C-alpha cells in the first residue's frame, strides 16, 4: 500500500518543543484558561489603559487570590492584563502604523544562516523556524517588522512617532524592562510571553502571535462567543428540535436513526459550518436562518452514519460509553440505519432553502466528501487484508481521506450557503486537509498510553505514533513493532508497556506533537489568501477551540497549600 502524494514534512526533524519555565503556566491549555480568566476580570473591572505598574500588581494579585492561581505566574498574569486592556485600542489602529517586534531567539540557532546588522537579524527565510512565516505575513499586511530586542530599541522606536502600536514577543524579563517606556508614552501594546527566558531556541504560543498580528476592529466576529455558538448548535439536536427540522419520524428505523443522531458528540462539523456561515454573513451577530439548521443537521447525519459503518467494519462493541448500534440491533439493521442517515443528509441539504445554485453545489460537495471518505476507509480495509507495517506518510494518506473530507464538507457547505466564491472554497479545502490530519494526530496523542491505544493496536488500526516508532526502531525493537503491526501479539502479553517504552526511547510523542503543530500551522497558512477578515479571524480561533477544548480541573491544587503558607512572606513581584 502506498500514498505517494504524502511526504513527511521537514518539521519532524526540527528542534523539539521545550517545557515552559517556572514563571509561565506549563501547558497551552492552562495558559488559555488563565487568559480567559484575565479577559473576564478586565471586563468586570472595566480597566482603562495605560495601567500604572503598581495597579497592575494589585490587580494581578487580586485575580490570583480569587482564582487560586499560583503566585509563580503573577508576572504572566500582569502581562495578559495589560494586553487585554489595550486590545480594543490596538484593534482600531491600522496595520501600517504597527510594529511587530520579534526576538532572535525564536530561531534555531545551530542551523540559522541569518546575519545581523544594526537593526537586528536579517531573516533568510530558510524555513527552519517560525520567524519567516510571521515576518512575511505581517509585512504583507503592512507592519514594520524587526527581529531584535531590548528596551533601548523599544524607546527609540517610540520616539520616532512613526509607530502607533507594538505587537511584541519577548521573555518576561525583557517585558519588565520595556514596560515603563510604553506606559510613559501610552503606546498601545500587546506582548506575547516566550515560554522560556534563556535566549536560546525559545518557544511561544504561535496561535497567540497570529491572533495579535491579525487583531482588527474590522473583524466583526472578534467578539463572537464560540462556546455559545457551539451550545446553540447542540440545541438543534434535541428531540423536539430534530422533529421540527426533519419532520415527524415514522416507523422504528427513523426513531432509531433520530436517537443515534442525538447521541453525545462534539458536533464539530455542524459547528464548523455555522462558523463559516456566520463569518461570511452580512451581520455575523444575527441569528442563522432556520434553513441553515437543516444544513447543519444534514452534515451531522453524514458523520453519524460513518460512525455506524466504522463500528461494524472495525468490530467495535462500544461508542460514547454505550453499546454500538450493531451490537444492539444487529449488523443488518445498523447498516440500514447508516444508509438512512446518509439519505437524510442529502434530503436536508436539498431542503435548506439556499439559492438553487448553492444547493446544487452543496450536494456535489457532500457527494465528493462521501466518496473520498469511502476511498480512505477502503485503503485501510485493503491494507487490513494483508497487514504489514505502514510508513508515516501512508498513515497520513489515510487520515487525509478519512477525517479531512468530513471537515471539508462542513466548511465548504457553510461557505456555499453564504454564497462564497471560488477563492474561499479553495482555502477551505486546504484548511480542511491540514485540520483533518492535525485532528487525527492529536487524537492519536490523546490515546497514547491509554486503553484506547491498546485497543487500536489490538484491532490493528493505523496509528501515526506506531508508524513513527517502527520507522525509527532498529534490531529487536523493530522486530517487535513489526509483529505488532502484523497482529502477532500472542507472545507479548504486555505489548502496551513495550510500546510505551519504545515511544519514550525514540521520542515518539515529541515527534508526533511536532507533526500536529506542523499541520496546525499549515491550517493557519491556508487562510492567508482569504480576503474576508471575519473568516480569517474566526477560523484561527476555531483551531484553538478544537485543539484546546479540554476542561482542566483542580490544576492549581498542588500550589494552594504553599501559597497559603508563604503569601505574606512573598516579595512583591515586578512586571
TrEMBL record:
Key word Nuclease present: no
Similarity-based family: Belongs to the FPP/GGPP synthase family.
Region (Disordered): 1-27
The species this protein was found in: Acanthopleuribacter pedis
Classification via Pfam families: DUF116, polyprenyl_synt
Protein name: Polyprenyl synthetase family protein
GO biological process, one term: isoprenoid biosynthetic process
GO molecular function, one term: prenyltransferase activity
Keywords: Magnesium, Metal-binding, Transferase
Cofactor(s) the protein requires to work: Mg(2+)
Domain of life of the native organism: Bacteria
Amino acid at each position: 500500500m502506498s500514498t505517494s502524494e504524502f511526504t513527511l514534512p521537514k518539521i519532524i526533524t526540527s528542534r523539539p518543543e521545550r517545557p515552559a519555565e517556572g514563571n509561565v503556566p506549563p501547558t497551552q491549555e492552562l495558559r488559555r484558561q488563565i487568559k480567559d480568566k484575565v479577559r473576564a476580570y478586565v471586563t468586570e473591572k472595566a480597566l482603562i489603559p495605560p495601567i500604572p505598574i503598581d495597579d497592575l500588581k494589585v490587580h494581578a494579585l487580586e485575580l490570583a487570590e480569587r482564582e487560586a492561581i499560583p503566585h509563580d505566574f503573577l508576572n504572566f498574569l500582569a502581562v495578559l492584563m495589560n494586553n487585554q486592556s489595550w486590545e480594543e485600542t490596538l484593534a482600531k489602529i491600522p496595520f501600517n502604523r504597527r510594529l511587530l517586534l520579534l526576538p532572535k531567539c525564536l530561531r534555531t540557532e545551530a542551523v540559522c544562516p541569518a546575519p545581523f546588522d544594526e537593526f537586528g537579524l536579517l531573516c533568510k527565510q530558510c524555513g527552519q523556524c517560525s520567524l519567516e512565516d510571521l515576518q512575511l505575513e505581517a509585512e504583507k499586511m503592512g507592519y514594520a517588522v524587526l527581529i531584535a530586542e531590548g528596551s533601548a530599541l523599544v524607546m527609540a522606536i517610540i520616539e520616532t512617532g512613526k509607530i502607533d502600536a507594538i505587537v511584541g514577543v519577548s521573555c518576561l524579563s525583557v517585558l519588565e524592562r520595556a514596560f515603563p517606556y510604553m506606559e510613559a508614552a501610552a503606546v498601545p501594546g500587546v506582548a506575547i510571553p516566550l515560554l522560556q527566558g534563556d535566549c536560546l531556541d525559545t518557544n511561544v504560543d504561535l496561535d497567540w502571535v497570529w491572533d495579535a498580528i491579525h487583531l482588527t476592529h474590522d473583524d466583526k466576529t472578534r467578539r463572537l462567543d464560540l462556546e455559545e455558538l457551539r451550545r446553540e448548535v447542540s440545541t438543534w439536536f434535541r428531540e423536539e428540535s430534530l422533529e421540527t427540522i426533519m419532520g415527524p419520524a415514522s416507523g422504528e428505523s427513523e426513531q432509531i436513526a433520530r436517537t443515534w443522531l442525538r447521541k453525545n458528540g462534539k458536533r464539530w462539523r455542524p459547528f464548523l459550518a455555522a462558523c463559516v456561515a456566520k463569518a461570511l454573513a452580512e451581520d455575523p451577530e444575527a441569528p442563522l436562518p432556520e434553513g441553515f439548521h437543516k444544513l447543519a443537521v444534514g452534515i451531522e447525519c453524514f458523520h453519524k452514519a460513518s460512525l455506524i459503518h466504522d463500528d461494524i467494519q472495525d468490530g467495535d462493541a462500544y461508542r460514547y460509553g454505550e453499546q454500538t448500534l450493531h451490537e444492539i440491533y444487529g449488523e443488518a439493521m445498523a447498516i440500514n440505519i447508516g444508509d438512512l442517515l446518509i439519505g437524510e443528509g442529502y434530503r436536508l441539504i436539498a431542503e435548506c432553502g439556499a439559492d438553487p445554485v448553492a444547493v446544487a453545489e452543496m450536494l456535489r460537495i457532500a457527494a465528493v466528501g462521501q466518496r473520498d471518505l469511502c476511498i480512505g476507509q477502503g485503503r485501510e480495509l485493503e491494507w487490513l487484508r494483508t497487514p504489514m507495517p505502514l510508513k508515516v506518510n501512508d498513515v497520513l494518506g489515510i487520515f487525509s481521506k478519512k477525517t479531512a473530507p468530513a471537515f471539508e464538507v462542513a466548511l465548504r457547505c457553510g461557505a456555499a450557503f453564504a454564497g462564497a466564491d471560488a477563492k474561499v472554497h479553495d482555502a477551505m479545502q486546504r484548511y480542511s486537509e491540514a485540520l483533518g490530519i492535525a485532528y487525527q494526530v492529536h487524537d492519536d496523542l490523546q490515546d497514547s498510553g491509554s486503553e484506547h491505544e491498546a485497543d487500536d493496536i489490538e484491532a490493528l488500526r493505523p496509528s501515526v505514533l506506531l508508524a513513527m516508532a517502527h520507522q525509527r526502531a532498529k534490531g529487536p525493537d523493530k522486530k517487535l513493532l513489526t509483529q505488532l503491526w502484523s497482529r502477532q501479539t500472542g507472545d507479548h502479553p504486555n505489548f502496551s508497556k513495550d510500546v510505551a517504552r519504545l515511544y519514550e526511547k525514540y521520542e515518539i510523542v515529541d515527534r508526533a506533537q511536532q507533526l500536529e503543530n506542523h499541520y496546525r500551522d499549515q491550517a493557519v497558512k491556508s487562510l492567508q489568501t482569504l480576503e474576508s477578515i471575519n473568516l480569517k479571524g474566526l477560523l484561527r480561533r476555531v483551531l484553538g477551540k478544537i485543539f484546546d477544548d479540554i476542561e482542566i480541573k483542580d490544576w492549581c491544587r498542588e500550589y494552594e497549600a504553599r501559597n497559603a503558607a508563604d503569601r505574606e512572606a512573598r516579595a512583591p513581584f515586578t512586571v
